[in-house]
Design the sequence.
């Protein structure tokens, strides 16, 4: 393998994936010449790359692979018969996966802090990164979302810590193991485990097996923090190679949340550790689930040597992440919120958090089934219950339904029918313009619209803001 010092030009195949875009930015700031290609070029990652001066070539073309490329990084979105992959192999250019690149270029001689779990990874990774940065620890980090505090999603380490969002999805076509097994964790947060990624995992136990492997490789001198409320997370704790502690609202957890309340746009809570009072904290985020995320960050930060005041300073100045309960605007009294929720649990928690923050207002939940799992029937029975806290629900058609076999495909009309049978008010509107027209026509001042999708959702956000 070519040494890092000899590498000057790096090419990323599938550069617009959230992790790949972060890595491209890191590499560029580290002094490498970085380019790449993709077929899915849209904000916020395309904006991030272009603002960093990183060229994106429409993919995937063999002629993009030129002789001056020293290292290729291949994202998991491409297959072995990708034309650029074939050109790389023919030319004999060294190639590695995205998580291998993180370890190769950024985890040497660093304390690797890895945030894992089915839900909350991005928020928790971003919050920990900001708290350590605010406390002058100069962490490196890679976050799967755009952090408003930094106006980017990555940083080169200037201190001893590097923070990664540990994804359980597979690594690359040449490495079908989960990404997070490459991150050499010193310490980790496990936010919870649920079945997801039905395109690569057979069932819940298959996913849990990946997490068992992960907790086994945590540095024995490090530690693991896991959500007490999640039974599946607790099931893997016994496999940890390090000290393991739990956090949550239960008095049986090691780190316990007490006296929670939401007032004036902030969540307030007291934290105890094994029955000893630690401190009172507040953070400008909505939802009990985000208080759990903040608790895990507080516990990790304390174990890494930060003071309670340093943690609170970070909490109170945290500005959040784009696409995570992100208020895009208030137009004619109508609040438009963007969220990445695409799993029944995430949808439920997001709507409940918005309900808590806007208790007297009418809430519309607008959902696009887009992820590989949510486009399948797997969650067809669970999805209706996820929307209970909303006043009105609109479900659009599946994104790229043709990629899912008909017998395995989610039936959004069935989901809508179940919601209505259970006393809710739901609509199936497959056409995006019809959907926007309905909202613009029927919304009134003080309504709140939560747009939930793991993708661009046909640009619905800007269409609504323009029309309202």
Sequence:
């Amino acid at each position: 393998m070519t040494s890092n010092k000899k590498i000057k030009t790096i090419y990323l195949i599938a550069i617009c994936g959230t992790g790949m875009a972060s890595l491209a930015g890191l590499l560029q700031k580290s002094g490498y010449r970085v380019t790449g290609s993709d077929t899915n070029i849209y904000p916020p990652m395309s904006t991030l790359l272009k603002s960093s001066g990183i060229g994106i070539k429409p993919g995937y073309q063999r002629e993009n692979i030129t002789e001056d490329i020293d290292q290729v990084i291949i994202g998991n979105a491409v297959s072995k018969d990708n034309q650029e992959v074939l050109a790389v192999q023919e030319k004999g250019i060294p190639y590695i996966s995205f998580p291998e690149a993180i370890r190769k270029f950024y985890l040497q001689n660093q304390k690797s802090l890895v945030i894992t779990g089915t839900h909350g990874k991005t928020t928790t990774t971003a919050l920990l990164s900001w708290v350590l940065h605010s406390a002058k620890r100069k962490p490196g980090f890679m976050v799967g979302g755009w952090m408003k505090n930094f106006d980017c999603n990555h940083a080169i380490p200037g201190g001893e810590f590097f923070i990664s969002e540990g994804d359980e999805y597979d690594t690359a076509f040449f490495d079908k193991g989960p990404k997070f097994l490459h991150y050499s964790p010193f310490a980790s947060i496990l936010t919870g485990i649920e079945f997801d990624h039905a395109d690569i995992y057979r069932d819940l136990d298959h996913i849990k097996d990946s997490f068992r492997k992960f907790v086994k490789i945590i540095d024995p001198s490090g530690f693991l923090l896991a959500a007490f409320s999640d039974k599946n997370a607790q099931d893997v704790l016994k496999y940890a190679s390090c000290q393991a502690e739990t956090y949550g609202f239960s008095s049986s957890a090691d780190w316990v949340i007490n006296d929670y309340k939401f007032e004036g746009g902030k969540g307030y809570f007291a934290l105890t550790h094994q029955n000893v009072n630690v401190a009172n904290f507040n953070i400008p985020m909505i939802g009990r689930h985000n208080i759990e995320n903040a608790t895990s960050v507080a516990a990790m930060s304390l174990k890494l040597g930060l003071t309670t005041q340093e943690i609170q300073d970070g909490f109170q100045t945290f500005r959040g992440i784009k696409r995570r309960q992100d208020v895009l605007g208030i137009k004619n009294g109508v609040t438009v919120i963007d969220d990445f929720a695409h799993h029944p649990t995430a949808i439920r928690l997001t709507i409940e958090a918005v309900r808590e923050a806007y208790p007297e207002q009418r809430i519309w939940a607008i959902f696009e089934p887009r992820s590989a799992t949510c486009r399948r029937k797997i969650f067809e029975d669970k999805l209706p219950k996820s929307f209970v806290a909303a006043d009105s629900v609109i479900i659009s058609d599946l994104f790229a339904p043709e990629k899912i076999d008909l017998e395995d495909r989610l039936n959004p009309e069935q989901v809508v029918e179940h919601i209505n049978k259970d006393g809710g008010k739901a609509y199936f509107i497959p056409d995006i313009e019809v959907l926007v027209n309905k909202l613009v026509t029927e919304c009134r001042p003080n309504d709140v619209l939560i747009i939930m999708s793991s993708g661009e959702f046909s640009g619905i956000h800007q269409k609504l803001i323009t029309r309202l």
Remarks:
- The chain has 14 helices and 23 strands.
- The chain has a mean pLDDT of 92.
